[in-house]
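Dataset card, provenance and construction

Sequences and ligand SMILES were collected as paired inputs. For each pair, a complete structure of the chain with the small molecule in place was predicted and serialized as structure tokens. The example below shows a pair involving S-adenosylmethionine. Curators did not alter the output after generation; any descriptive sentences attached to a record were derived from the structure itself.
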Amino acid sequence: MNNSTKNSTENFFIIVPPSFEELALKEITFKWPLIIDLFSRLNNLPNESEYVENIKTMEKQIQIEKQIEQIYGGLLISLPENMGYLLNPILKIPTRILMRLTSFKCRDFPKLYNKIRKFPWNKYLKGQLPSIEASAEKSRLHHTGRIIETTKEAILNYYQGQPPSKKSLEEVKEINIENFSIYIRFENDICTVSIDTSGEALYKRSYKKFVNEAPLRENLASGLLLKLNEFIDFPEGEGKMLIDPMTGSGTFIIEAALFNTLNFTREYSFTLFPCFKKYISNYQTLQTLQTLHSSADDQLHHLQYQKYLAIDIDDKTITSTSKNFELLKSLNLNSIPIKLIKADVFEMSYVNLEPLKKVIIVNPPYGIRIKLELKFKNKVNFFQKLITTLLDNFKPNIIGIIVPRDISYKQFKLPTNILSLSVFPFIHGGLKLNFIIYKVI
Ligand SMILES: C[S@@+](CC[C@H](N)C(=O)[O-])C[C@H]1O[C@@H](n2cnc3c(N)ncnc32)[C@H](O)[C@@H]1O
């Protein structure tokens, strides 16, 4: 390994929505060569052949899956510091990425104060007081309010001993402190101090500006698309089209179209860490890359759709969603072939689409935030009718549909050529939902 890539290894905690842990792990394994690729670029690996060799060696050394520990609501991974930071613009399923700064046994406040006061904060902070979140479980120190206060006082005291430069303090004025967080976690009297490397939650992509009623969170949409992909086994070389017949603000379509791209359209906290300063100019060069270039990579290639069709019944939604799709052009991704149609999916007749395999993904109104139309007897009847209508109108190969968990999908009376392949339970905005995948045979 080239000297310039030597980088201390740190523990990262990748926060993911509960039940999406395995999918998040899968995303990392699929994108692993690209993570290494970006890391190598950031560290300025010199010539092409050496660079490729390095990637290969590193891939072997790391054996990624074995290195990641899955826990409820997250993944733990040990990575070179800079590589962990780069997960932010690459991954689409996580909510945020924390880096562990220090960990110690602690059963009293004076020790907490001293440990925090002695930590070299100037590596990560420019003189600002970050927002502090605390949690405590099975520990002598369990008063989270007091843990937060003690941490704040200790950081302020640290600054008294190591005053930040004037320039740093000027820069701090530009920072949104809300997006700068330290996490203090007590478990069995072990105190773990972590820093957020993301800033705003990662599902805030910045490129989708217009939001309609009941949108799905972007990272959940990406996770469900990856889940759906597990059941797509079309022969090599067959193109596929993604159809969202109740598209709302277009989340599924946008997430699918951008799944393999890097998100440099927003800020991440790690870029403001003083220790990252020496990489900034290389990072700025990376920002000019729009897509993960390794299109030869089979697994990522498999996730791509050749065409997209989005439908919605609502005029206002169509107007704002067309603006969302327009925004993709500003990302230099105007070659993405998306067709947006205003229609009532129940009133449509067979749509003669191109000879591509068709994958439908749909997040219908659940009758909670958006009222179901009165013409359906009940919710079971609505979902049943929707699935059969989708079969008739689009002749799809696969359908992935979100159904509230209180609706018994087992009661759906469906044609015999449709098989239920998978039921994936998850929670969105406090609602318990199932993502059901059907295959048409
Ligand atoms: C739950 S929202 C979808 C949210 C979307 N996944 C997002 O993230 O923005 C359901 C959408 O279905 C649309 N819709 C309701 N009935 C419809 C129908 N009969 N045909 C087409 N669209 C319909 C609504 O206008 C609404 O935008």
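Derived descriptions for this record:
The domain at 218-259+297-440 is CATH 3.40.50.150 (Rossmann fold).
The chain has two domains: 3-196, 218-259+297-440.
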